[in-house]
Amino acid sequence: MKPLDGTNFKCWSQKLLIYFEHLEVDYVPFTDPPEITPQTTDASTVIVTTSQTVRDSSKRDDELKVKYERDNKTVRDHLLYHMTNTLFDLFVNHKSARTIWNTLESRYGGDDAGRKKYVIGKWL
C-alpha cells in the first residue's frame, strides 16, 4: 500500500478501513473510549444489587477498557506505519487513533482538495 502523502487520502483510508474490518478493530477510528461509570444510588431510589453483580459489571468495564486500549494501539500503529515520514513526524505523539483519523480526515478527506491541488500543480 502506498503511504499517505496528503494526496491519496480517499483510497488510502478505504484500504485501511477494509484492513481494520478484517482485524475487527474498525470501530476505533469512529468511537470514543468506553467510559467507566461508577455504581451510584440516590436516596429516592433503592437499588438492590448483590456484590456479585457489581463485580461482574466492574469486570466487564475493565475488559472493555483493556480491549479498546489494545485495539487503539493496533489502529494507531497501522495509521502511523502507512504514512510518509513527514506526516509520521506530525502524528507520532498522538496516542488516540481516533484523534489521528479525525485530523487526517479534516485535512485531506473533505473533497480530496489536496489531490486536486496536486494534479493542477503538476498540470501547470
UniProtKB/TrEMBL annotation:
Pfam families: Retrotran_gag_2. PANTHER family: CCHC-TYPE DOMAIN-CONTAINING PROTEIN, PBF68 PROTEIN. This is Uncharacterized protein. It comes from Sesamum radiatum.
